[in-house]
Amino acid sequence: MLRPAEKPPLGLLPPEKLRPPPPEKLRLPPPPEKLRPPPPPPLKWLPPPPPPPRLPPPPPECPPPRCASAGTARNKHNNPLKPVIIKY
Predict the structure, then answer these.
(1) What is the pLDDT of residues 30-76, one digit of tens each?
(2) Where is this region: Disordered (predicted)?
(3) Strand, helix or coil at 60?
């Protein structure tokens, strides 16, 4: 390993460490311009599709739940709640 005093100055390398210049490459002539295809025709806006035919609403499978009378506890299915017995 070189000591700091023996290092060559920055930017200068001894000739044995320099790479030989690369050989000149043969330059190819630029490729001929390819004929571009004609641009596609502009897109025409299509009218919106007709709305689908309206179907009649399906018949209700069960009658709508009746309102619970006052004082009767009901769940979300309109069934009366069972009494809860707490055992001590």
Answers:
(1) 777 767 777 777 777 778 878 888 877 777 676 666 665 556 777 88
(2) 1-88
(3) coil
